[in-house]
Specification:
The complex is a heterodimer of chains A (about 140) and B (about 475). Chain A is of the alpha+beta class and about 140 residues long. Chain A is about 45% helix and about 25% strand. Chain A contains one helix and five strands; from the N terminus they run αβββββ. Chain A has one helix at about 5-70; strands at about 70-75, 90-95, 100-105, 115-125, 125-135. The N and C termini of chain A lie far apart (about 85 Å). Chain B has about 475 residues and is an alpha/beta fold. Helices cover about 45% and strands about 15% of the residues of chain B. In chain B, strands 4, 5, 6, 7, 8, 9 and 12 form a seven-stranded parallel beta sheet that branches. Classes of the chains: A alpha+beta (about 140), B alpha/beta (about 475). At the A-B interface, helix 1, strand 4 and strand 5 of A face helix 1 and helix 3 of B.
Chain lengths: ~140, ~475
């Protein structure tokens, strides 16, 4: 009695090959999906950083308003306000509508990636002028 | 064969697995990106809103008024040049310069329009018979005019529209008082008053500060010197049997001043409609007020072609001054449709004065003050002057003249004019780009008459700012 014939042994080789091929394909697909997922996670993290920046900037602006007043008091602008969450800020009073131009710089010479600008009211004597508050991250 | 099937099966399963995974991942990514867009847009919206607050708080250097005050004043008085003491500020130029400096040229559009929650429609109608049709038509259509305006300003359902009719006539005369009976004054939103010399003009004693009540609603008469065209009322009364009524029944200028003053200081949009077919204080020439002989006086009234433009202009000027001071709109209704009430007695007067009989005085060559043209036209030579004066008062108060050629168009003409009044009650600055990405900040500001107004600032962000 013949335990194996030629056809049966051939079928065994193919089965091994098929399984091997199947495993390879599955592996590649899994790696691909994992890679894609990893890319997405990285992308989400960078986006969360951006989203976080907006809330940091808003908080920093509110802290500056609590230091200088909602209408920025020009007399107080000579002193810096402790806003640790940002790298620095500048306040520029615009020389429009007969207001005197002025510039206050509170940057700590470190490199910064981004800046955010707000138009702010600045008290000059009895009148309110306009200026730009620039926050650096 | 089965090996191939196994391989292909595996590939297909993996392919499906990959595609499904990619779709899920893609959806997740899209969701995350839109969440970020939302956060970024919310941040920009808040930042621009803060910018708008700053601009409104700033002070104009020469008048020391806040930008918000200047804007609402310019809107309320509907003029760009506002004068405070010796200083005149062009609000439009001033704002343009400021917004260009802080936001950037072509990056904003400012629009301010009042929140209209109450409209007062005031019709000042010549009480003479030649305007009988107009008074009746208005009485019939007033409810639908009121409903139309309510629909136009509808926002919350709490809007109020009222109509006041002021008929120029003698309130002590029952016949004149009855002219109000055709209006449905049982409705809470319709009122009718007969107003005459007592209401229209300041009596001489009011100019004496010791006796005059400065808190009175009639203070405007002294302030703007609203007096009858002939200072000696007794003289006119003695000369003419009808007394002063011959001029005050047509004095729509003083009538507009009265209606405007009696709606002063209220938080609502006030629109005034003088309705007349004559010059203010009538088209009867001045000379006729000095003739006591009745036949000659009546022939003078009808036939003298000296149009009393100056007398009328003085009255219209009072209307203009009071309406402008109160920020009210005047839309005069010109109704010169040749339906003057011709009395047969005129033929008798003509015979007495000219020594020959006639069947119609207005058809006679010697009578140019009236003419027959599908009806009797009273003083056609004054037609251009009436229109000119009506256009003047309308132009200065941001209203428009309604030329009522067909009385059937009364409702349409009035409704479209009110629509225009409401639409034009806006202050705009900058360029509006309808399809561009924009952030809108909105503020409610009070007008001088306590009416609230919506100020909207559209800011078009830089390309790199937008998510």
């Amino acid at each position: 009695m013949k335990l194996f014939n030629y056809t049966q042994s051939k079928r065994g080789v193919y089965a091994v090959l098929t399984s091997f091929f199947f495993i390879i394909v599955a592996l590649v697909a899994t790696i691909g999906v994992l890679f894609y997922q990893n890319m997405l996670v990285t992308f989400e993290r960078s986006i969360e950083k951006d989203v976080n920046e907006y809330s940091v900037v808003t908080d920093a602006k509110n802290i500056l308003f609590s230091c200088y007043g909602k209408v920025l008091d020009e007399n107080k602008l000579n002193e810096s306000c402790n806003v640790s969450m940002i790298k620095g800020y500048t306040v520029e009073k615009l020389g429009i509508n007969q207001c005197n131009e002025s510039y206050h710089d509170y940057l700590n010479n470190s490199r910064y990636d981004q800046s955010f600008v707000y138009v702010v009211p600045i008290q000059e004597d009895t009148r309110i002028c306009l200026g730009r508050l620039k926050l650096f991250l | 064969m089965s090996v191939t099937e196994n391989v292909m099966g595996g590939v297909i399963v993996m392919f499906i697995f990959l595609v499904a995974g990619a779709i899920v991942m893609h959806n997740l990514t899209e969701h995350t990106v839109s969440k970020v867009d939302l956060t970024k847009n919310k941040y920009l919206e808040e930042a621009y809103s803060s910018d708008f607050n700053a601009v409104l708080q700033a002070t104009e250097p020469t008048t020391m008024r806040s930008f918000a005050d200047l804007l609402t004043d310019a809107l309320y008085y509907r003029q760009d040049n506002m004068t405070f003491g010796n200083t005149t500020v062009n609000v439009r130029d001033f704002f343009k310069g400021t917004l260009n400096a802080v936001i950037g040229e072509d990056r904003y559009y400012l629009e301010i329009k009042p929140k209209i929650i109450e409209v007062s429609l005031n019709f000042v109608i010549d009480g003479s018979d030649s305007l009988l049709d107009e008074r009746q038509k208005l009485a019939d259509e007033l409810p639908s005019i009121i409903e139309g305006v309510k629909k136009k300003i509808y926002e919350t359902g709490e809007e109020i529209v009222v109509a006041n009719i002021y008929i120029l006539g003698n309130k002590y005369d029952l016949k004149d008082r009855q002219k109000c009976d055709i209006y449905n004054t049982n409705r809470a939103d319709i009122s009718c008053y007969t107003i005459g010399a007592d209401e229209l003009y300041a009596p001489p004693e009011d100019f004496n500060n010791e006796t005059y009540d400065v808190n009175s609603k009639d203070q405007y008469k002294v302030e703007f010197n609203v007096t009858p065209p002939y200072s000696d009322a007794n003289y006119v009364r003695n000369i003419r049997k009808a007394g002063e009524k011959d001029y005050y029944e047509a004095d729509w200028g003083a009538g507009v001043a009265y209606a405007s003053a009696h709606n002063k200081g209220m938080a609502k949009l006030v629109v005034l409609f003088p309705v007349s077919d004559e010059l203010s204080t009538s088209s009867i020439p001045d000379a006729c007020f000095h003739i006591s002989d009745i036949p000659r006086q009546k022939m003078c009234d009808l036939c003298d072609t000296n149009c009393p433009a100056d007398r009328s202009a003085a009255s219209v000027e009072k209307a203009l001054q009071v309406a402008k001071a109160n920020g009210h709109i005047v839309n005069p209704i010109y109704s010169f449709n040749c339906d003057y009430d011709y009395k047969p007695m005129f033929n008798t007067y003509f015979e007495i004065v000219h020594g020959r009989s006639t069947s119609n005085t207005c058809g006679e060559a010697v009578c140019g003050g009236c003419s027959v043209n599908n009806g009797v036209c009273f003083h056609p030579e004054c037609e251009d002057v009436i229109l000119e004066q009506m256009n003047h008062v309308a132009g200065e108060t941001f209203g428009k003249v309604i030329n009522l050629e067909d009385i059937q168009n009364l409702v349409y003409d009035i409704s479209t004019t009110i629509d225009d009044n409401i639409e034009e009650y806006k202050f705009r600055l900058g360029a509006e780009y309808e399809h561009a990405t924009r952030f809108v900040s909105e503020r409610s500001l009070p007008l001088p008459n306590k009416l609230m107004t919506d100020a909207k600032l559209f800011i078009y962000p830089n390309k790199n700012e937008v998510a």
